[in-house]
Amino acid sequence: MLDFDFRVIAVVMFFIILISIQFTLNKIFLLLREIRAILLTKRDR
């Protein structure tokens, strides 16, 4: 029974880590898009 509980906790932790990584990558991606947009507008002028 203890082994089963540990496996469930491990799976839940894995999903939490996966979601947090996805969230972080999404924020970085948005930041890079903003920076690129700023650079493009500066270059056009």
Main sheet makeup: none
Portion of residues in beta strands equals under 5%
Q: Briefly note the structural class of the backbone.
A: mainly alpha
Rg from Cα: 20 Å
Principal-axis shape: rod-shaped
Question: What can you tell me about this protein's structure?
Answer:
The protein is mainly α and 45 residues long. The chain has one domain (1-45). Helices cover 96% and strands 0% of the residues. The protein has one helix and no strands. The longest helix has 43 residues, at 2-44. The chain is rod-shaped. The mean pLDDT is 92.
Structure keywords:
45 residues; 0% strand; mainly alpha; single chain
Strands, helices and their partners?
Layout: H1 2-44
What can be said about this structure in brief?
The protein has 45 residues and is mainly alpha-helical. The protein has one domain (1-45).
